[in-house]
Amino acid sequence: MLNPLFIPLLFFFFFLCFEFCVVGTQMEREEKVSLELSEEILQSMEVGMSFKDYNCTISSMDFHKSSSYLVTASDDDSIRLYDITSGTCLKTINSKKYGVDLVCFTSHPTTVIYSSKNGWDESLRLLSLHDNKYLRYFKGHHDSSKCIFFPRVVSLSLCSRKDCFVSGSLDRTVLLWDQRAEKCQGLLHVQGRPAVSYDDQGLVFAIAFGGYIRMFDARMYEKGPFEIFSVGGDISDANVVKFSNDGRLILLTTADGHIHVLDSFRGTHLSTYNVTPVSCNSTLEASFSPDGMFAISGSGDGSIYAWSVRSGKEVTSWRSATSDTGPPVIKWAPGNLMFATGSSELSFWVPDLSKLGAYVGRK
To answer: Is residue 261 part of a domain?
Structure first.
């Protein structure tokens, strides 16, 4: 469904504008000033387009780094590929046999890695969306003797610069993988539910659990963490850990409804935002804006919040139309004035120009 405030051309414009304004001429520099993400622009954002044809909750989604594609995974065992410039669903692929939980793009815009959610097969799969073919299986998270639950993968992060990725499971292991090999390239044992993430350069990865974020050099991970950062006594289950695009900040969400932001170099605790806690079966997700100046997050009550990273203050909040389905999955589109939320429907949020009179026609 398309909000009449956001005709397709406007939707396409906002998809392009953040990247268009980055280069060199005087006019382009002036345009960057007029379109730079600000509190006013963030406060104006509304749902510009939504897809309501989901039968179940969206469990995961990912934007491709360099194309206009978005992929979603949902509890009806489907994977869907979208082109956000045209606002169309390009393909739906069902994974009824294995189920689907987490999904991430590889460097190729129609190839993904996804985790199972069927209760009997913990494998990760490399899937070509182009022809619906499995290119590789990754098996390793299977030590169910140490896990009272099915040892499903609860965290997955791909390195944007190399063909490697890292996965964390309820079996209390973190595995390092090369997309070209079926067997894992490294194994780390943890003492809790792990949240994992590569930084954008692929040189460092983080593992969060038990109230701490452990920083590893990807080239020497077997030597253990080179830094361990405390998150202020919050020992609830880690849900999501992420780096900002420039690698200077790191964000951690926990099941108790806390979103922590730290300096990734010094470990300095910069701020903590609080939302409604999530259930043990849900994940609290948050995301940095492309410039790292703002953080957005879902909440256990289905609301969406935005904060200024610099001041630590809440900038705005939105009550989702699907708030009864729990915390939405939330992702900011790389390099664009748009973020997406997923619950029982998929929504794209863009600025409403009618609320931004000072920006219209500004040169």
So the answer is: yes
Confirm whether 280 is domain-assigned: yes
The strands making up 339-342's β-sheet, listed across from edge to edge, are 45-51, 346-351, 339-342, 329-332
pLDDT at 1 over 80: no
- Specify whether the CB–CB gap between 204 and 217 falls below 8 A: yes
How many whole angstroms separate alpha carbon 338 and alpha carbon 323?
Answer: 20
- Using one digit for the tens of pLDDT, what is the confidence trace for 87-129? 999 999 999 988 999 999 999 999 999 998 876 677 899 999 9
Reading the block at residue 5, the tokens are 């405030």
Q: pLDDT-derived band of residue 150, with 50, 70 and 90 as boundaries?
A: low
Residue 363 lies in a domain: no
| Structural domain for 69, as ranges | 8-355
Cβ count near 147 (within 10 Å): 17
Q: Where does residue 278 rank: exposed (0-12), middle (13-18), buried (19+ CB within 10 A)? A: buried
pLDDT tens-digit map of 193-225 = 999 999 999 999 999 999 999 999 999 999 999
For residue 304, the domain's CATH number is 2.130.10.10
CB 167 within 8 A of CB 177: yes
Between helix 26-35 and helix 8-20 the angle, nearest 10°, is 120
105 domain-assigned: yes
Pick from 74, 67, 113, 81: nearest CA to 96: 74
Distances (CA, A) of 184 to 46, 93, 121: 42, 26, 16
What's the DSSP call for residue 79?
E
Confidence category of residue 357, pLDDT binned at 50, 70, 90: low
Q: How far apart are CA 106 and CA 112, in angstroms?
A: 5
Q: Which two tokens stand for residue 42?
A: 């963030």
Instruction: Please state the domain count of the chain.
Output: 1
What's the pLDDT tens digit per position in 273-299? 999 999 888 899 999 999 999 999 999
Cβ pair 69, 339 in contact under 8 A: no
**Beta-carbon contacts of residue 148 (< 8 Å; ≥ 6 apart):** none
